[in-house]
UniProtKB/TrEMBL annotation:
Entry keyword set: Signal
Keyword set includes Signal: yes
Source organism, top-level taxon: Eukaryota
Gene source species: Dendrothele bispora (strain CBS 962.96)
InterPro entries given in the database record: AB_hydrolase_fold (IPR029058)
Gene3D superfamilies for this protein: alpha/beta hydrolase
Name under which the protein is recorded: Alpha/beta-hydrolase
Annotated signal peptide: 1-18
Length: 368
């Protein structure tokens, strides 16, 4: 009954002709293996390549929605690219979906939502041209598990999770964004891996209740329990980070782990607003390491097993966390983010409505 009337404005969509400006993905030279040759300009976004990060003279690069009145912004969506470090394309995808949603539902004001794509780059990107000599870079797979930067000055030890802290603090600064209500870290695939782990490890702040993490189609999880759905006794380090919690944490999380212990860290994680989403056709093997395979043999199976783990907790599924199954979608970020479920969670309906007020939210004009 509740489901039948949720988020109705968007069901009007087929009746509308698309008029919003759809931004095409630009062709970019290079590739993720050998490095990208540029970070392309993107209509509607500022490319900021000198974002200061404390603890280093180096800088970070972000795409951020251009031309918005900061005092009107109520929501920030922070959406990195995939393992391929195609961060610009994720900004574009999120922007297209927001434009579409705002056209379909006039109550959504796109000027209240700032989209940011943080550009976690690799050394090859500096060599190929996308990053200049002062821009921070990480190893090709390290950035999404929270490791320290590899350069320009590795001794600065800037975790990719420190960057996320910095970006959250940017939006939480009341003197710039007096009306900000929510930050959504939106992650698909590699970025979903990143946010599942970051949600556990980040240090508590007063604003934690305003921060949400979307974990869509991750290749693996930081498993909360020490046993596994598909155990393999000849596989080493199954329960070490990034696959588990029995040590091996990156520098960013080591202090927290030492202080809280496994139990405390799990408790901290379960209190955070994590929103899982899985495409029901996301059935490729993805990460084929034996550690990942003990969580399930495909992306979808790992997701199902993780949900079973949550549901089997003595406290039950945490009230701060949600699960969406996106029917028929595979490992496709645009289709995932543009599903009715994720579109609403990421950009368009406040979490207040989602969690507290389904019964108050009763559009009267249409039922499906
Ligand atoms: C999102 O989905 C709607 C409805 O299926 C479609 O009309 C629209 O073009 C999609 N937008 C994007 C950016 O994928
Ligand atoms: C790095 O590149 C950006 C343009 O991509 C430029 O704005 C910035 O000043 C550059 N920094 C240095 C030190 O060259
Ligand atoms: C178990 O782990 C070993 C060691 O990596 C690997 O060779 C083997 O294929 C794994 N077994 C399964 C069923 O994944």
């Amino acid at each position: 009954m509740v489901a039948s009337r949720s988020f109705l404005p968007l069901t009007l969509l087929p009746l509308l002709t698309a008029a919003y400006t759809f931004i095409d993905n630009p062709a970019v030279g290079g590739d993720d293996e050998n490095g990208w040759t540029e970070l392309p300009p993107v209509p509607g976004a500022d490319l900021i390549s000198d974002w200061p990060i404390s603890g280093t003279d180096s800088t970070f690069v972000v795409y951020r929605s251009a031309g918005l009145d900061a005092s009107a912004i109520t929501r920030a969506v922070i959406v990195p690219g995939a393992k391929a470090r195609d961060h610009w394309s994720y900004w574009i995808t999120m922007k297209n979906i927001l434009s579409y949603a705002a056209e379909a539902d006039p109550s959504i004001d796109p000027n209240t939502i700032s989209i940011m794509s943080p550009c976690f780059m690799a050394q090859v990107d500096q060599q190929a041209g996308a990053a200049n000599s002062t821009n921070l870079y990480w190893s090709k797979t390290g950035w999404f598990s929270g490791t320290y930067n590899e350069g320009p000055n590795a001794k600065d030890q800037i975790s990719s999770f420190d960057i996320l802290d910095n970006l959250a603090a940017h939006y939480l600064d009341k003197s710039t964004y007096p009306n900000l209500e929510e930050i959504v870290f939106a992650g698909h695939s590699a970025a979903a891996q990143m946010f599942q782990r970051y949600a556990a490890l980040r240090s508590p702040i007063d604003n934690d209740a305003q921060i949400h993490y979307i974990v869509a189609n991750p290749g693996s999880f930081m498993w909360l329990a020490s046993d596994r759905p598909a155990p393999n006794s000849s596989c080493d380090d199954v329960d070490r980070y990034k696959y588990g919690m029995n040590g091996g944490f990156p520098g960013y999380g080591t202090g927290t782990f030492n202080r809280l212990g496994r139990h405390g860290l799990v408790e901290q994680y379960l209190a955070r607003n994590v929103h899982y989403a899985h495409g029901t056709a996301d059935d490729g093997p993805g990460d084929t390491s034996c550690q990942a395979v003990t969580q399930g043999s495909t992306h979808l199976e790992r997701g199902q097993n993780f949900v079973s783990l949550l549901q089997s907790l003595s406290t039950g599924m945490p009230s701060t966390q949600t699960i969406d199954w996106v029917e028929g979608v595979s490992h496709q970020n645009q289709e995932m983010y543009n599903s009715t479920q994720l579109r609403n969670r990421v950009c368009c309906i406040t979490f207040f409505f989602l969690f507290l007020s389904l019964d108050l939210y009763q559009p009267t004009h249409l039922r499906l």
